[in-house]
Design goal:
Blueprint (H helix, E strand, L loop, with lengths): L2 H24 L3 H12 L12 H19 L2 H6 L1 H26 L5 H11 L5 H10 L3 H31 L5 H32 L3 H21 L4 H15 L5 H28 L1 H6 L6 H22 L2 H8 L12 H9 L5 H8 L8 H30 L4 H31 L7 H21 L12 H25 L5 H20 L1
Keywords: Antiport, Cell membrane, Ion transport, Membrane, Sodium, Sodium transport, Transmembrane, Transmembrane helix, Transport
Protein name: Na+/H+ antiporter
InterPro entries: Cation/H_exchanger_CPA1, Cation/H_exchanger_CPA1_bac, Cation/H_exchanger_TM
Length: 528
């Protein structure tokens, strides 16, 4: 690779990170800004062509992105809302696939039914990255976020399985066999779950024994790729394998060392930022090559197909989401579905139907001889861009307009944390008393007083948080004053260490060591 090619290769991630940085600083939704920027840049004369390779997207980008989301997700919360997640991740995907296929077959001349089913499977799965990010920032109820996360984790597997069956039927010149499709889905999902559990169990035992946080996180980086490749090698669902592995290891992460947990959070946040920035920029950059392939098509007719398909996927979700609430009740098997019956939460979930890179990767993965392949590519792109722009841009406004919030959940969390901190502090002080009484420790009285004060301050800080960090008359609480003053002291200490390093009175190694200690203390203050 020559220097020019290397620079062109670096141009994409560098530009994507620059745009992501601007959006984060301004508080704008990064995925939307990246797609729009890529769309505009694709028409700049002389801009190198970045072709979306479906194999790279599905085997390199998708596994770590899914794994990272699964690591941060709560297996227990997902289990509580498994019914609505199943209705969305499986039911809605299949419903969308079938209806889109029938409509596309009827509207688009010359599109075989099997090919129309492939198109339906391509545009069926949602990518809730931007919706979840906006929802968390604006305070959507936790259970709504959990449902969106669960749907995003599992719907790709349903859609990709239906996609494989439809494409195989097109290649074979036959219609899809429902029995064979069902058997393939059961096999794909079951074996994917088995691979994910086996790999995660083995890695979990290893991580609990590793005390080197760098090695532990190095091993963790290999898990999503290993889980995906292992399942795909036997024609099972690599997506489900990765998701199950991530959920299992995320649940077990609390049993690893503190260094592993701290580093893991940083590693996956950086990986998410880079991968998502590049992926959404790539989506926008596909505009020019896709449009160029449709030079022989009637623009008005193609635009009509795109509008019909976009409106169809939006309406189908709006029709299906209420069923996740009312259908279980009609069957007399309903449990709390996470929507709580609130029409506001139903509207929010219905509008969170943005599509993403999995749809485009599947479309680009169609065989070259696939019927009307270029038109399917364009329609997929139109649905992805349309949902990201129309639904994505209006999603924050909709949340604010209908007034959905998680204020009561935040108060309950603070109350539960305060009680837990009180119990933990009591246990810690009891253990300290045992050690002193048994004569295990011969320590100075001042040390014991400092330990007691620290345990009591931790519990008190949690209770003070219930008051918003202020006293009865709006004044700062002692813990708030402590944090503010200590933060200023840490800044002054850093300036001294940096000045002494610049004067060559201490070595860089000494500076790095003390800076790490100060950083950990400030991180603790910020968290509290």
């Amino acid at each position: 690779m020559d220097t020019s090619s290397a620079l062109q290769l670096l141009l994409l991630p560098a530009g994507a990170l620059a745009i992501a940085g601007i959006s984060r600083r301004r508080g704008w939704p990064a995925p939307l800004l990246l797609v729009m920027a890529g769309l505009l840049v694709s028409f700049v004369p002389g801009m190198p062509s970045y072709e979306l390779d479906p194999h790279i997207v599905l085997s390199v980008f998708l596994p770590p992105m899914l794994y990272s989301t699964a690591l941060e997700s709560s297996y227990l919360r997902l289990r509580d809302v498994k019914q609505p997640i199943g209705l969305l991740a499986v039911g809605l995907v299949l419903f969308t696939t079938v209806v889109v296929a029938l409509v596309a077959h009827a509207v688009i001349p010359g599109l075989p039914l099997a090919a129309a089913f492939a198109l339906g499977a391509i545009v069926a799965p949602t990518d809730a990255v931007s919706a979840i990010a906006v929802g968390r920032k604006l305070g959507l109820p936790r259970r709504v976020i959990t449902i969106l996360v669960g749907e995003g984790l599992f719907n790709d597997a349903t859609a990709l399985t239906a996609y494989r069956v439809a494409v195989a039927a097109v290649v074979a010149g036959a219609t899809a066999d429902l029995f064979s499709a069902g058997a393939e889905f059961v096999y794909s999902a079951g074996v994917g779950v088995a691979f994910g559990l086996v790999i995660a169990s083995a890695v979990g035992m290893l991580l609990r024994r590793l005390t080197d946080s760098l090695i532990a996180n190095g091993v963790s980086l290999l898990v999503p790729f290993g889980a995906y490749v292992a399942a795909e090698a036997v024609h099972a669902s690599g997506v489900i394998s990765v998701v199950v592995a991530g959920l299992y290891l995320g649940h077990e992460m609390s049993r690893t060392t503190y260094g592993t947990r701290i580093l893991s959070g940083a590693v996956w946040k950086v990986a998410d930022l880079v991968l998502e920035s590049v992926v959404f920029a790539l989506i926008g950059l596909q505009v020019r090559p896709i449009i160029m392939r449709l030079a022989d098509q009637d623009p008005a007719r193609v635009a009509f197909y795109a509008v019909v398909l976009f409106l169809l996927v939006v309406v189908l979700r709006a029709v299906w989401v209420p069923l996740t609430v009312f259908l279980p009740r009609l069957l007399r098997r309903g449990r709390d579905d996470g929507h709580g019956g609130s029409w506001k939460k139903i509207v929010i979930t219905s509008w969170a139907g943005m599509r993403g890179v999995v749809s485009l990767a599947a479309a680009f993965g169609l065989p070259e001889n696939f019927p009307q392949r270029n038109l399917v590519l364009f329609l997929t792109f139109a649905v992805v861009i349309g949902t990201l722009i129309v639904q994505g841009l209006s999603f924050p406004w909709l949340i604010r307009r209908i007034g959905v919030s998680n204020d009561s959940e935040r108060y309950s969390d603070d109350l539960a944390e305060a009680g837990a901190q009180q119990a933990a502090a009591a246990a810690a002080l009891a253990r300290l008393d045992e050690l002193i009484a048994d004569g295990v420790l011969d320590v100075h009285a001042d040390v014991v007083d400092q330990l007691r004060l620290r345990a009591e301050r931790t519990a008190l800080r949690a209770w003070e948080r219930l008051g918003g960090g202020t006293g009865a008359n709006g004044e700062e609480t002692p813990a708030t004053v402590y944090r503010r003053l200590r933060t200023e002291m840490l800044a002054a200490e850093r300036e001294v260490f940096i000045r002494l390093r610049d004067e060559r009175r201490i070595d860089d190694e000494v500076l790095h060591r003390v800076m790490q200690e100060l950083d950990f203390e400030e991180a603790t203050l910020e968290r509290s």
